[in-house]
């Protein structure tokens, strides 16, 4: 059962992500235009360095995500060529010649060239699923980190409001920029809310079954396979990192939104004229409402949510182990 979940759930999740991205393509285009506009508009050296820092962080996450996927794909695709399987083999669905994925065939798969064609098609399918699964997560991190960079620049600009001679103009521009970023966050949340809810459910189920299987493989030393154990740990780390990425990105976004609110307090408003100081209330009111990514508009994507999910999945692992005993 767990063998089927290892391949079925990621494949279903990848298709769900692609379907959601296709349905929300009209909302994604304004976000891409926003990123293009932010990079092309005039900015200070400090603001540009902050944007480059956030972009590099998103690039590192992308590289790491594809590296983890490549390792998992290596076990699934390359090892069966040498007769080594990372799955539990059965006499019904696994004939003499191994292939990466387990399924039923309406033709004689072991005969050439059907075997080679089947193997090649499964490799293409695996890479499409891996690219879709990881690429969507990396795109989410790119969008959120760009918004975080803009919020950080806005925070710096607000803290230095007293240094500008054209206070009203800079404050008006800051308010408009803050409203624009709030709308961008809401658009990102609307695009990925359903996907994040499915990701939490998917991770909770897979984490519980994978944890149960890993513990069972370690405790039952006679049936343990080193290759399969390494593959299970790789898949475990893969799903763990991707789900942790959702919550980490959401936590960083919450911190940056709160930073804008605190920046109004930290600026030297007491040195301003009373009328100018009262205008800062506009930003305080708009920044008072917490902004975060959500899973289906139900749960905030923060590290607290991730820890609670780990606790719940750990409880199910204990139940499965107790039932096995």
The secondary structure category is mainly alpha
Rounded average pLDDT: 79
Low-pLDDT stretches = none
Number of strands: 2
User: Describe the biggest sheet?
Assistant: 2 strands, antiparallel
The coarse overall form would be elongated
Helix-strand topology string? HHHHHHHHEEH
Strand arrangement, largest sheet?
A: 1-2
Distance between the termini: 18 Å
Strand content: under 5%
Helical residues, percent: over 70%
Total of helices: 9
Provide the gyration radius in Å. Answer: 25 Å
Based on the model shown, name its key terms.
325 residues; mainly alpha
Describe the structure.
The chain has 325 residues and is mainly alpha-helical. The protein has a domain at 2-43 and 137-320. Helix content is 76%, strand content 1%. It contains nine helices and two strands; from the N terminus they run H-H-H-H-H-H-H-H-E-E-H. It has helices at 2-23, 25-40, 45-77, 114-159, 167-219, 226-266, 274-279, 281-288, 303-324; strands at residues 294-295, 299-300. The chain has a two-stranded antiparallel ribbon with strand order 1-2. Strand 1 and strand 2 (299-300) form a beta hairpin. Helix 3 packs antiparallel against helix 6 (226-266) and helix 5 runs parallel beside helix 9 (303-324). The longest helix has 53 residues, at 167-219. It is elongated and about 85 Å long. The relative contact order is 0.12. The model has no long low-confidence stretch (mean pLDDT 79).
What secondary-structure arrangement, pairings included, does this model have?
Layout: H1 2-23, H2 25-40, H3 45-77, H4 114-159, H5 167-219, H6 226-266, H7 274-279, H8 281-288, E1 294-295, E2 299-300, H9 303-324
Antiparallel strand pairs: 1-2
């Amino acid at each position: 059962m767990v063998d089927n979940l290892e391949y079925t759930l990621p494949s279903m999740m990848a298709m769900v992500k692609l379907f959601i991205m296709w349905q929300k393509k009209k909302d994604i285009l304004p976000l891409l235009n926003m990123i293009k506009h932010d990079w092309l508009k005039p900015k200070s050296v400090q603001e540009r360095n902050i944007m480059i820092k956030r972009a590099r962080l998103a690039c590192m996450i992308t590289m790491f995500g594809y590296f983890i996927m490549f390792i998992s794909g290596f076990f699934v695709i390359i090892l069966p060529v040498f007769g080594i399987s990372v799955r539990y083999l059965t006499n019904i669905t696994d004939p003499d010649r191994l292939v990466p994925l387990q399924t039923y065939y309406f033709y004689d798969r072991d005969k050439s060239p059907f075997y080679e064609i089947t193997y090649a098609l499964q490799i293409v399918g695996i890479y499409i699923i891996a690219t879709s699964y990881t690429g969507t997560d990396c795109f989410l991190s790119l969008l959120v980190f760009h918004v975080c960079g803009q919020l950080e620049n806005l925070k710096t600009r607000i803290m230095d409001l007293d240094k500008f001679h054209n206070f009203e103009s800079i404050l008006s521009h800051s308010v408009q920029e803050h409203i624009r970023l709030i709308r961008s966050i809401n658009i990102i949340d609307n695009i990925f809310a359903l996907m994040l809810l499915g990701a939490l459910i998917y991770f909770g189920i897979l984490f519980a079954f994978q944890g149960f299987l890993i513990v069972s493989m370690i405790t039952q030393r006679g049936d343990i396979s080193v290759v399969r154990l390494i593959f299970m740990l790789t898949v475990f780390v893969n799903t763990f990192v991707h789900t942790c990425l959702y919550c980490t990105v959401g936590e960083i976004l919450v911190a940056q939104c709160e930073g804008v609110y605190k920046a109004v307090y930290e600026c030297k408003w007491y040195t301003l004229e009373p009328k100018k100081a009262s205008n800062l209330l506009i930003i305080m009111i708009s920044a008072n409402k917490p902004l975060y990514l959500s899973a289906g508009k139900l749960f905030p994507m923060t590290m607290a949510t991730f820890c609670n999910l780990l606790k719940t999945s750990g409880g199910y692992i204990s139940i499965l182990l107790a039932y096995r005993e």
